[in-house]
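From the pipeline queue, job 12 of 40. The input is one protein chain; the requested action is below.

Action: predict structure.
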Amino acid sequence: MNFNSEVIENAVQSLSSFPGIGKKTALRMVIHLINSNNESVKQISNSLEKLKSELKPCKECGNISEKEICNICSNPLRDEDIICVVCDFKDVLAVENTASFRGKYHVLGGLISPMDGVSPDDLNMDSLLDRVENKNISEIIIALSATLEGDTTTFYLSKILKDFNVKISTIAKGIAVGGEIEYADEITLGRSISNRIIYEI
């Protein structure tokens, strides 16, 4: 693809690094930006810059937030005694879009994967144990993808939580084995949350 401009070519290369964005789509986006007024381009640039400069992990649950404590954790209308454990902040968005869960979350920041060198020590697990130990938590819902890594992490979590007086459940397998939480449709994911099952070792 001949761009006849190094500036345009660099912009296309940058945008095509996004998942699902090919060079033709990236070029259309670049052309749109060229034809936009300076204020619009500056607003887009500032929004993207703030993604890295202003977002940080919530001190309570690990979800991304521009505040020390995210809006979900600080919401007094959420159920304090139920925690939904997820892999990533994308999974929080997916579950929230189902409108089926009114508890709070805990974001692990990954899944146990010995092949990739990811151990339990690399994940946000100690703070989960602290929450279970120091707060009146009645149920932990483990909402991880139905993959080998997800199942391994679910098993590990159930082992370290079994000595606490807390019910451990997993989402119902409305999500296909090998499927990723973030790609599940809202109805399937919502039913999986609503029809969760007690996890037994």
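Job complete. The first strand starts at residue 56 and ends at 57.
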